[in-house]
Write a structure and sequence with these properties.
The chain has two domains: 2-185, Rossmann fold (3-Layer(aba) Sandwich), CATH 3.40.50; 193-336, Sialyltransferase, C-terminal GT-B Rossman nucleotide-binding domain (Rossmann fold), CATH 3.40.50. It has 337 residues and is of the alpha/beta class. The strands form three sheets. It has a seven-stranded parallel sheet, sandwiched between helices. The chain is built from 13 helices and 15 strands.
């Protein structure tokens, strides 16, 4: 029996891809859906689930606070009571989730890590550098007051991971990588018609405090100058809706929201826009993998001096470096802002 744990629509898509890639039958697949960043996020994830794909599906809260963690742990133990020994593999969607690491370490079975967008690159980098998730608890008072010692968290580092990924990167000796190109998802693709519009893929950089509102607005004003066609803003689920509407109105852009990842929407509709525009986004990675030359992409590079959080400067530079090394072509262009 395989236990899958996800907390976003993208992670669910990758879980289904892994299930089919490894030949795991539905009757051998248990699915646990965490809340993730918001209840809306969980509702969108649950709306994509087909019960026939899984032996059993359960959903729980975020498990991020102490109380919610203890509640989730109690639920998990009740749910799997008497079935622990039947689970021989754990497939998780987010390495950064303390609860997912806790469950994986509790079961002690081989762990597969699904792609969670470009965050996968950061996880691989840290594991190569031997930076563990609990490094901040190794000194001072945190060492004695952390949740592991007081409440039995088993959220320490996972000894070995199998990355199930579309990305190209190096892994440390204890890990391995299984590459895929969304073969199962692509099998359902049809010949795509064209829509006379370009999609701008929104990103919650303002909401996350990564760049200022004025800088973000300036990026879009600059981008608008490069295209004569109609542009439709596709907001990220974490973006503030009134802010997006105000931006779109000022730029004379359309706005369209979906309850599932845009790459999945494009597959299901069988229609492609003239191209995708964005700063950086997992949607750009996945769209490039799925559609290749059929879907031109323009990625605009954020000036590093505009980034407000020092740790995000390194990550952002890493993403654009990856784009240059692996994607740069006539149909995937990187443009300076």
């Amino acid at each position: 029996m395989k236990l899958f744990m996800v907390e976003s629509p993208l992670q669910l898509i990758n879980a289904i891809e892994a299930q089919r890639h490894f030949g795991v039958s539905p009757d051998q697949s248990l699915l646990l859906v965490l809340e993730g960043v918001s209840p809306l996020n969980q509702r969108q994830t649950l709306s994509l689930i087909r019960e026939s794909d899984w032996s059993e599906v359960k959903s729980i809260g975020s498990a991020q606070s102490l109380v919610s963690f203890l509640s989730a742990r109690m639920f998990f133990h009740r749910w799997l009571h008497g079935r622990y020994e039947s689970i021989d593999q754990v497939i998780i969607g987010d390495f950064r989730s303390r609860f997912m690491r806790h469950v994986a370490n509790t079961l002690g079975q081989p762990v597969v890590l699904l792609d969670d967008g470009t965050a996968t690159l950061a996880v691989a980098d840290r594991r190569r550098q031997n930076v563990t998730p609990d490094a901040k608890y190794e000194r001072g008072w945190r060492r004695y007051l952390n949740k592991r010692r007081l409440f039995g968290y088993r959220d320490h580092d996972i000894p070995a991971l199998t990355f199930f990924s579309t990305f190209n990167f190096q892994v440390p000796d204890q890990d391995r990588i299984v590459k895929h190109r969304y073969e199962a998802l692509r099998r359902g693709m049809s010949v795509c018609k064209r829509q006379p519009v370009r999609y701008f893929i929104g990103c919650p950089l303002v909401e996350m405090g990564i760049v200022s509102e004025s800088h973000y607005r300036g990026y879009l004003e600059r981008i608008a100058q490069d295209f004569k066609e109609t542009i439709c803003y596709i907001p990220h689920r974490r973006e503030d809706a009134p802010r997006v509407r105000d931006l779109a109105t000022c730029l004379n852009w359309q706005v369209k929201s979906f309850d599932k990842p845009i790459e999945l929407v494009l597959l299901e509709k069988g229609e492609l826009p003239l191209g995708l525009i964005g700063l950086y986004s997992t949607a750009l990675d996945n769209a490039h993998t799925l559609f290749g030359e059929q879907l031109p992409i323009h990625s605009y590079e954020i000036p590093v001096e505009d980034i407000l959080k020092s740790e995000r400067k390194v990550f952002t530079e890493r993403v654009y470096t990856y784009y240059r090394q692996h994607y740069l072509s006539d149909h995937f262009q990187i443009v300076n802002l």
